[in-house]
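Sample pair:
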Amino acid sequence: MAKVGILMGSDSDLEIMSAAAKVLEELNIEYEMTIISAHRMPDIFFDYTKTALDRGITCIIAGAGGAAHLPGMAAAMFPLPVIGVPIMTKSLGGVDSLYSIVQMPSGIPVATVAINGAKNAALLAAKIIATNDKEMLKKLQTYAENMKNEVVVKADKLDKLGYQGYIEQMKK
């Protein structure tokens, strides 16, 4: 069974990155999650990425703010897909993280999602897994159908209640 690694450079990223864990759990994808710093603990980081494949990791989701080196460094050392999640920063709103992750040198690709987009990172990891797993493909199709149905229910409710009624019900 495929396994995903979820990495973050600080526990302050946990709230954002937990969205990836929730999606993976919903899709019944095994994962491991850890706080690891490429800068503060390079020996542990190197060991993690060098041994990830042996532990069954098929994709790494790496969240990073500020300098945002974690996804790129993971991609430099891990031979399978790495998905970077730029984390919102106080100073530059996460654009700094986004630019850092998307500006990888040729030959070291990192897939990148929106700022704080850990949920989409998990869905992208699931789609990567689904390329060789028909059961996962079915789960993703069901997931998409469920999202569609949620929107249909909301649209129906808005049609029935009107704007003001819908807003009032949302407040409850």
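The beta strands are 3-8, 30-35, 57-64, 82-86, 111-112.
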